[in-house]
Specification:
By secondary structure, this protein is mainly beta. The protein contains no helices and eleven strands. Strands 2, 4, 5, 6, 9, 10 and 11 form a seven-stranded mixed β-sheet that branches. A four-stranded antiparallel β-sheet has the order 1-3-8-7, with no helix packed on it.
């Protein structure tokens, strides 16, 4: 199975930018659709963005559309989440997730990285 490790979280001010990275290991990275989810304190985990196997198709949640961009580099086995114009409501633990090529669900998860946006 694939192992996922997020990095890049931190404490920033509203309006700042941050880029999260998720490094994958253990299996052929290009066989996995990738996604970012987040979970704020007291709230359920929510979808942020996803990207197809080769990176040609992406999907972004309405709450972050126009501010967040997902991308991947299959030569580096890494998926990224570029976050611009951050808002306090973006504060959450951000998780990287992977779904095997023909799977309907994201079955593999990283440990998460904390993003805190101060006002």
């Amino acid at each position: 199975q694939v192992q996922l490790a997020e990095s890049g979280g931190g404490l920033v001010q509203a309006g700042d930018s941050l880029r999260l990275s998720c490094a994958a290991s253990g299996r052929t990275f290009s066989n996995y659709r990738m996604a970012w989810y987040r979970q704020a304190p007291g709230k359920e985990r929510e979808f942020v963005a996803s990207i197809s196997l080769a990176g040609f198709t992406t999907s972004v949640a309405g709450s972050v559309k126009g501010r967040f961009t997902i991308s991947r580099d299959n030569t580096k086995n890494t998926v990224y989440l570029q976050m611009n114009s951050l808002k306090p409501e973006d504060t959450a633990v951000y998780y990287c997730a992977a779904a095997l090529r023909y799977s309907d669900s994201f079955d593999y998860w990283g440990q998460g990285t904390q993003v805190t946006v101060s006002s």
